[in-house]
């Protein structure tokens, strides 16, 4: 598969990505555990069918020490016993925050309350920003058909 556009060669994308990457770094530096951030990024990317981001976040998470078992079960996290209650709350928030059209009301009060049991206000802000950022990145990659498989851990950090 060939990409429709070379996003990394575009001056417009370069200018915009500078700001997006700064926002992404702010989220990465939050107190939300790095493993949770990667699991959320992976799940959002799976839902959106973004192969580039699935490739990237699977490899980054594995490189950071995440186990193959936990990575392989992200798509079926509800039935899996390998995630903490906090991780499960973050994954549920990520799913409802990504499937806004399917949820018809966005994120439910129950899902928000479960997330708020495990994360303080600043962490919730970081999770919401991370979910939004991942949805943006996924859509850019899906629309332009960016191919996956060549990512090297840490390539964009």
Q: What does it look like?
A:
- The chain is an all-alpha fold and 157 residues long.
- The protein has one domain (32-143): AhpD-like.
- It has eight helices and no strands.
- The protein has helices at residues 11-28, 34-48, 51-63, 68-72, 85-98, 100-103, 109-118, 121-143.
**Oligomeric composition of the shown chains:** single chain
Task: Tell me which CATH architecture applies here.
Answer: Up-down Bundle
Helix percent band: 55-70%
What is the global morphology? globular
H/E series: HHHHHHHH
Query: Mean pLDDT, rounded to whole units?
Result: 92
Under CATH at level 1, the class stands as Mainly Alpha
- Gyration radius (Cα, Å) is 15 Å
Query: How many discrete domains?
Result: 1
What name is given to the CATH topology?
A: AhpD-like
**Parts with pLDDT < 50 across at least 5 consecutive residues:** none
